[in-house]
Design brief:
The protein is α+β, with helices and mostly antiparallel strands. The protein is about 20% helix and about 25% strand. It contains ten helices and 18 strands. Strands 11, 12, 13, 14, 15, 17 and 18 form a seven-stranded antiparallel sheet that branches. It has a three-stranded antiparallel sheet with strand order 9-10-16. A hairpin with a 4-residue loop joins strand 1 and strand 2. Helix 1 crosses helix 3. The longest helix has 17 residues. The chain starts with 5 loop residues before the first helix and ends with a strand. The N terminus is likely disordered.
Length: about 375
């Protein structure tokens, strides 16, 4: 018998989806008379700079059609549910594809819905905190952090009711628990400040221009970036931690400081970071590389899910989590013995979107598990 091709497997998962992601399963609250989310491209004529940024951001690539890693996790979840005979909503879809299944002139399913369209975030009115996840209440109009100034907009804009824009972000980035009550995403527990300061920095360029409509051009010459830099942005990651090395009494102290107001790595259960240390002799030979540090020190910064005696289980199976991430403002010190003959020490902090085992288990593209160096340091040691 022939193995099913991609098309037939796609049909199987589309059918399976109807069982595990029923309409409204994790629905955000829609207003009366809701007619669907607008295509983000319709925002481009007046907000070209912002639209171009959004198009390159993970907000525009959060769904399974545009993010191979997300698609791999979705298919793994689908297969698990099919084999176990269980029925449960695909909880990640609530935030990764919040427009799924909503009327928009054409029928949408989670398989074909846009990722996070402009019109989703800009119709948010409030956030309701739930036991397992947060949900948004949406409006029929356009909402924003501020009203339009210096121009006559072709549409009404209503100011958000949130005291800080970060409150709006926490509707999705705040929390997520699985069916067993295990925390999967946990920004509400990690700590945070005003997300906008780091993840939507002020950027040169007018936020809007209606010149094409012969009305007006924005008086502002800066806007809040809609690239939403985070774990996929190397420059942002390099700001997250600092690294220092100290040699003392035959020991090498490797100090990693989390400079962010939340955990490092943060939020996503798949992220991980680690330290690589090398001690080098006069001839350039590496005398020691990346062994475990002295007892009691954790060298891998991540959250590992467990179920019974099994470690490294997927989020939907998790009963508990072992967390070795660095807390906000914490300095984690790792201690190593300096071998005789070592004259130089160097270390680096590396970040992974996915660990190699997770990538292998889920079938995630290997490039998404490649380590990214986010900090490095080297010092000369006293000759011995």
């Amino acid at each position: 018998m022939k193995k099913p091709g991609l098309a037939s497997r796609g049909m199987f998962f589309a059918f399976l989806l109807l069982l595990i992601f029923p309409a409204g399963a994790l629905a955000h609250k829609l207003p009366a008379g809701f007619k669907g989310f607008k295509d983000s491209a319709s925002c481009a004529p007046c907000h070209k700079t912002i639209y171009d940024e959004w198009s390159r951001s993970m907000h525009s690539m959060s769904g399974r059609k545009s993010d191979p890693a997300h698609n791999a996790v979705f298919l793994a979840f689908s297969q698990f549910m099919a084999k176990s005979g269980k029925k449960a909503p695909y909880f990640c879809g609530s935030c990764h594809a919040p427009a799924a299944g909503r009327p928009a002139g054409v029928k949408e399913t989670y398989s074909s819905a846009p990722d996070i369209p402009c019109s989703f975030c800009h119709s948010v009115e409030s956030v309701s905190e739930g036991k397992a996840l947060n949900t948004y209440s949406l409006s029929t109009g356009i909402t924003s952090a501020g009203a339009v100034s210096g121009a006559s907009a072709p549409h009404a804009v209503r100011k958000w009711s949130f005291a800080l824009p970060s409150e709006m972000c926490l509707g999705c980035h705040g929390k997520m628990k699985n069916g067993k009550g295990t925390v999967i995403c946990s920004m509400d527990l990690e700590g945070h400040s005003d997300c906008v300061n780091c993840h939507m920095p002020k950027t040169p360029g007018a936020p809007w221009s209606y010149a094409a409509k012969k009305t007006a051009i924005a008086s502002e010459d800066t806007h809040f970036s809609h690239l939403f830099p985070g774990g996929h942005d190397t420059d942002m990651l390099k700001k997250a931690v600092s690294l220092s090395l100290v040699a003392r009494s035959g020991k090498l102290l490797v100090n990693i400081k989390n400079r962010t107001p939340h955990f490092f790595p943060s939020t996503s259960p798949m992220r991980a970071a680690f330290v690589k240390v090398e001690l080098i002799g006069k001839d350039g030979k590496i005398l020691m590389t990346s062994p475990a540090p002295l007892p009691g020190r954790k060298v891998l910064f991540m959250r590992v899910f467990t179920a019974g005696d099994k470690k490294g289980v997927p989020p939907w199976m998790a009963e508990k989590a072992v967390d070795s991430r660095i807390k906000a403002g914490e300095t984690r010190t790792l201690t190593y013995d300096i071998p005789n003959g070592a004259v130089r020490a160097r270390a680096g902090v590396y970040y992974r979107l996915f660990t190699p085992p997770a990538a292998a288990n889920f079938g995630i593209p290997a490039k998404d598990a490649a380590p990214v160096k986010v900090a490095e340091k080297a010092i000369t040691l006293d000759s011995r």
